[in-house]
Input
Amino acid sequence: RTRIVTPDMTAHRIFGLAWLLLSQTQSFVSAAEVPRERISINAGWRFSKEDPADTGDRLSYSKIKAWILPTGAEFSKKPELAKSTRPAGNPGADVSYTRPDFDDSKWRSLDLPHDWGVEGPFKMEYPGETGKLPWWGVAWYRKHLEIPAADQGRRIFLDVDGAMSYSTVWLNGQCVGGWPYGYSSWRVDLTPFLKFGADNVIAIRLDNPPQSSRWYPGGGIYRNVWLVKTSPVRVAHWGTQITTPEVSEQSATVKIKVRLDNSTDTDALVAVKHEIFELDATGNRGKSVASCVTPDLKIPAQQSASGATQMILQSPRLWSIDQSHRYLAVTTVEQNGKAMDRYETPFGVRTIAFTADQGFLLNGRKVEIKGVCNHHDLGALGAALNVRALERQLGILKEMGCNAIRTSHNPPAPELLDLCDRMGFVVMAESFDCWRTGKNKNDYHVLYPEWHEQDLRALVRRDRNHPCVVLWSSGNEVPDQDKPEGPAIAREHAAIIQSEDATRPVTTAVSSYKGGFSGFQKEFDVFGWNYKPAHYGEFRAANSNLPIIGSETSSSVSSRGEYFFPVSENKDHGKVDFQVSSYDLYAPEWATTPDAEFAGQDKNPFVAGEFVWTGFDYLGEPTPYNWDLTTLLNFTDPAQQAKAKAELAELGKINSPARSSYFGILDLAGFRKDRYYLYQARWRPEIPLAHILPHWNWPERVGQVTPVHVYTSGDAAELFLNGRSLGLKKRGEFQYRLRWDDVIYEPGELKVVAYKQGKEWATNTVRTTGTAAQLTLDADRSNIRSDGNDLSFITVEVKDTEGLLVPRAKNPIRFQIEGPGEIVVTDNGDPTCLEPFQSKERQAFNGLALVVVRAEAGKIGNITLKAESQGLKSAAIQLVTGDREISRAK
Output
């Protein structure tokens, strides 16, 4: 079994880490059998904000860059970077926080992943575009780590999946490297400065610059951190690449390339063995299906060497969206008959192609890409990674019919791709939000000249074995797209990516009209166009051989459960009191309604599909309410300043209270907006579906026109108000909703009966409810693991005496918990709510609120969550925690 070394942890944390490693397809073999260990060191860190008082700017990136650049040397082909080494000296040696003897006992104790920004507080004066949360600044993390004397002679690495940002690492007071881009995964070698059989201290400094993001980036070591122990002769970091150049129903050729490192002073002659196993749906190893051996591979002293081999799989199980079959390649490096390393690589067998005429082909079959863009935050949980929260998001999207994710606009957490492999999503993996020209003062353009190659290679090398990844994107709406140097930059990116992986096409999300015709488009294997459904046909006429996809579409805005009258057809209307009407007719000036994008694709079926902006609401970018004083001061363009001033004057406030976006098909809490059913009707036409909007609680509108819209997978529908037919309507060509725009409101019951090919297909009813009378609780899972990571998402509903959701209820609710669990966060999906996410009180927003509960690590028993609100009947729900099989995620 892989040995889990956690000297600073209790038994219950060891149990939790064992489950976490197992869930990520780590093989459990004894240390005697395999000299490679990958150990979670998420637990037991100390945390403090700000530098010591006497530090000054001597730890700023500009001052210590020469010691950081060598960390990325292996990812660069440029001689000045590839051969860079740490200069003499030790920056930070005189800073108290780096020293092993510094007393950090008064610092805050916490476990990773951690996002300090989401802890708040929200402040009105903070920039609306980044969530009104304090994510910027300097922070330190320290950890004591004992390395056994038996590890002498091994190589010990620190692997960081993501830290925001400008990371610098010290071990026992010695600077060992770092990485500036907050979304990249990276490694530093701790070996030269370790004390074996003794206490060691890791110190990590982060410096998150203000004005470095257009959305909420989070702050902290927000992804997992690992200690990796290997032999001096080993498989290199992300050192395997598995491709399947020939695939049929009868057989598949599996080609394995492996890069090996030799950290000894003598040449090493090794044999490399590969064995392929089937993986089941949960990632457990099944039967062996192929194996081979490459003997006598020479690795020069203190150098690397590569080898390649191939095997044939008979009757391969193909990975697809519907059947996510996977395999596991186990690579064993032997020297003199002894296993020096064993390295595992999950992969899938499938073929992909993007064509100009048919769009996307998966295993030779046309598959419409029904995708969403998502930022990396997890709503109220912030940027800190949680696998269960990601799984919940993907499950809700899968139910809608979504089959694709764009990682907007940065490298994703590795766990997201693991889940997409397992759950059947294809992925556009993206690298940057800008290139040479920035969008904010301190964004990626500052790092671009010296780091874009390393960041691109790190992304591709880490993720190239995931079957879910079908597109590499080198950027998003980059300002360089319309500049003379744009094509050359794009060409360089494509060459970097394809030198790491030539099996997938390269794209970039282009926002300009000109970019589709200037020649810039010809630098990509697949052209990604944002918000141009009216021009798809024009593009095809000028680019007959170039595949195209809607890389970012719609950007419709809405607030769940909010409806404003009269219902305007002007897409810039529908805004009242910092909310946006949920009639799904509204979008920024550069965007479109979902209906317009659907029509663009239906008129041009060669388009491979779309990635909607966005799947979920996210922290920051609260368009159309992201103009605030801070944003205004950042503008240099007089026209932008004038527009911002006009909007601020219209609102009568200098700062908008909006904290989060309105773009999501689901709100920040994960509750479905009306738009969810519009996409579900299109993306899952096989399921009977009818959805009415708005709700029917309008006492102030008796006798007034109150339009009713219906989203349905049927082709016709009849609407009834209190039993009276308001007419049968049939779906016309390029029509995606049915509308009764002249309905006169009266309380009672609205019912729709949808038809398909003349037969009754689906029904939906909304009723005028009574006043709020009771609370109900519903958990997405009632059994949760006691690993300290697993979560239960509990929906709170405000209902009347008959059990109907009261759609305008905004009652304040208090929560209490008993037993071995804790309330992690609460939310309600209201983009203007500035109550801290950690609060145990939450006002319902249009009848709903959310509570997220985590079990205490290592404890088994019953957890009871109670919800109370003055004047309402309270509610309680019981959860069970422990080491047991859990119910399937909803």
About this structure: Residues 212 and 750 are 49 Å apart (CA to CA). The longest helix spans residues 448-463. The longest strand covers residues 233-247. The two ends are 33 Å apart (CA to CA).
